[in-house]
Amino acid sequence: MIRGIVGALIGSRINRGQGGGGAKGAVMGYAAQRVIRRMGTPGLVLAGGYGLWRYASDRRKQRRNGPV
Asked: Which of 20, 36, 47, 68 is the most exposed place for a label (fewest CB within 10 A)?
């Protein structure tokens, strides 16, 4: 149960960062947490790899465009 709440909070935070209200992100975060859990280790590795790729991509964009 705590894992679902944490997933929803993270999803809400991500959605607010993208200009959303937060409720849609909370639902998506909760659902993503459930899917990753069902996929097991490959799902965890895939999600972690995507997160690192996204982080590196955003950093590269910031360096290219300069500070806002």
From this structure: 68
